[in-house]
Every structure is written in structure tokens, then in C-alpha cells.
Amino acid sequence: MTDARPPGADEAAFIAAVRSGDAARFALITERHRRELQVHCYRMLANYEDAQDLTQETFLRAWHKRESLRGDATLRTWLYRIATNACLDFLDKRNDRIPVPFELPDPGSEVPHLQPYPDRMLPEDPQESAVARETIELAFIVAVQHLPPRQRAVFVLRDVLGWPASQAADALELTVASVTSALQRARVTMRRRLPGRRLDWRSPATHELSDDERGVVKSYIDAHERNDLDGLMSLLREDLRFAMLPAPGTLVMTAEEAVDGWVSGGLFQRGRDDWRGVATTFNRMPAAALYLRSPDDPEYRLFAIAVLRVVDGKIAELTGFDAAGRPWPGLPPTLSVVADVTAE
């Protein structure tokens, strides 16, 4: 998403708002960039709620620094620079966000603050949407979290947004040589974290779900609603990677081990066997929102979100998120007994 356009009408309107002190006009102009900045913050932080907060912090900083926008940069570039540094300041203050060394066993699992990103909040800009799936899938987001913060920023600015080295160096107050070195190290880590995955982030990429993916989500929900454990087991690969956030740890297990583990944890047992599911998408990936009804409850309540990676018609990775008692964008907190809901 290289932004090489010369400053134009957007910047002229912004500068006019700054000169007149028109805060409302300033907010209207910058608001157009909210969704893409929020995705940028999410890539940096892996947490949807933090991305919302840091996007708002970006707009506050932009207002306070409004006089610093000159005619040598576009408004979008200027806002991305502010957002990137706001995220870096946030990471500098959070000891719980220190990357786990790659050498530890299965470091990809140690991102307990990971949250899924609702597709309906993704940018509507066609150019940004074209690369969204490649750069917002959970595996990519987790891999990015294992880069040190400034290396992470360099990687996102250079290889995701397509900024030239000089522009990234200026934004991060680094030398071009430092940016080049950081990018080389980041690419090595990303290749190790995503073996066999597509690594050309700036090329056009599909973000539509395949028929296989849609079919697997439907079958996954049907198996829950029928308490069909054999059917559920048949959907899982024998080398399933499973995680349930916020609990740390990704386990590799057989389909039978996965289902047996869920049953031994109390699911599909009397009192926890009345399911409804909603097919949806998070992070441009197929997902199921699972609702559970207790015997005395007149409604099904949101219980968990399962984000799936489907390979050859089977679930290869299942990342679950505890969703009980909290709102999730685009999902109703409850379903009535007769409800038939499909989320987009």
C-alpha cells in the first residue's frame, strides 16, 4: 500500500482546518483513515481493543502535532508515522508484550493477548483489502509479534505498506542502514515462523473464502448443534494445532485427542450440550461463533469464537477465543431459542 502520491486536496483541506483551528473539520478529515490505521495498529499489537485505543491516541497526537504536517508528505503518510510511534511508545511501557525468543519450544503459542479482528471493521479501500488476508491472518499476526518492536515497525512499514527505506527511516528516526539491517533480520524470522506460506505481502491476494472453507464452517457448526462428536472429529486433521486464548500454549494433537479433551473439560456433557452457531469471518479467515444454552436459560449466550485454517477440506489450525460475557463487534451477545442468524 505504497502512498507515493503528492499531497493533494486532502492535505489542502487538512491544512486549512489547522490554520482556522476548526477541530470538527480536522476530525472529519482524519476520520476517513480510521479503519486502515486501526488495522496498522492491530498488526503492531495483535489486540483489537488496543488497536482501537491506539488509533484514538493517534488522532489525539495528530491534533496536538497538527502544525507539523508540511507540504512534503501526504496526510496518510503523516498519520501512519504518528500511529507507528504511538504503538512503539505503548510497547515500550508494556513488559507483558516482550517478544518470546524464537528458540523456545513452539513460541508461536505465547501471545496470550492475541484477539481476533472482525472483518466488518477492515478497511473498505480496495487496495488495502487486496492484501488484507495475507497480512491479517492469525499466523501472520502471531509471527509479527515475535519481532522486537522497532524491527516489527520496520517490517510493517517496508514489507506490508511498501514504504521506501528512506521514508521508514525518517518515520522511526533511524538511519537507512539501520532500517535495511532490521528488515533483513525481520524477514529471516518471518520465513522461519511461516514456512511454506506466501511471503510476498505486497502482491495482490485473494481474500474470499473458498467453497471448502465455507463448507467446513457449516459442518463444524452442524456437528456442535447435533452433538455429533464423530462428525466433529472427521473435520479435524490428525496434526491439528489448537490454542484457546487467553490461555497460553498451542498444542499439536490428533482429532481424537482434541475431541476427548473438549469432552473431558465438560463440553458436550449434560448441561453444556445445547449449542447454536453463527458462521462468520475474523482476520479474513473462516470462523464460527459458538453459543451455549444452560438448561434454565431462555437464551443461547456467546461462549467462544473459533477461527479456523482449513487445508484440503479439513481444519488444520483452530484458534479459540473465550468470548463469554463480553461484546464482540458484529455478533449478538445472545440468540433466542428460535433464532437463525448468519453474520457477515
From TrEMBL:
Pfam families: Sigma70_r2, Sigma70_r4_2. Keywords: DNA-binding, Nucleotidyltransferase, Sigma factor, Transcription, Transcription regulation, Transferase. Belongs to the sigma-70 factor family. ECF subfamily. This is RNA polymerase sigma factor. The keyword Cytoplasm does not apply. GO terms for molecular function: DNA-directed RNA polymerase activity. It comes from the Bacteria. Residues 140-189 form the RNA polymerase sigma factor 70 region 4 type domain. Interacts transiently with the RNA polymerase catalytic core formed by RpoA, RpoB, RpoC and RpoZ (2 alpha, 1 beta, 1 beta' and 1 omega subunit) to form the RNA polymerase holoenzyme that can initiate transcription. Residues 31-95 form the RNA polymerase sigma-70 region domain.
